[in-house]
Write a structure and sequence with these properties.
By secondary structure, this protein is of the alpha+beta class. The chain has helices at about 25-35, 55-60, 65-75, and strands spanning about 1-5, 10, 15-20, 40-45, 45-50, 65. It is globular. The chain starts with a strand and ends in an 18-residue tail after the last helix. This is DUF4031 domain-containing protein.
Length: about 90
């Protein structure tokens, strides 16, 4: 399933949403291509999409979910790719 969170992430004078799949990156890339989202918008496990595309993507079949649910779903599916750190290690968990 393709999921999208609400536009809430400010950057470059815009507000952005995240577009993900909870099934596969192949499904995500196919949806993004069909929706005209440029490949440069892909970042590890999601596409960054500007707020002005949100309604179009929902109309095309993306399911609106909270940011928390979006992360939980891609983590449960094994599709979450966290940023690597300078030394290649994840920070310790507390």
């Amino acid at each position: 399933m393709i999921l999208i969170d609400p536009p809430a992430w400010p950057a470059w004078n815009r507000v952005w949403s995240h577009l993900v799949s909870d099934e596969s990156h192949d499904e995500l890339h196919a949806f993004a291509k069909a929706a005209g989202i440029p490949a440069r918008g892909f970042d590890r496990d999601h596409y960054d999409v500007p707020s002005d595309r949100y309604d179009d993507l929902v109309a095309a079949g993306a399911v609106p979910v909270s940011s928390r649910e979006l992360v939980a779903r891609i983590t449960a599916a094994g599709l979450r790719h966290r940023k690597s750190h300078r030394n290649g290690q994840q920070p310790p968990t507390v």
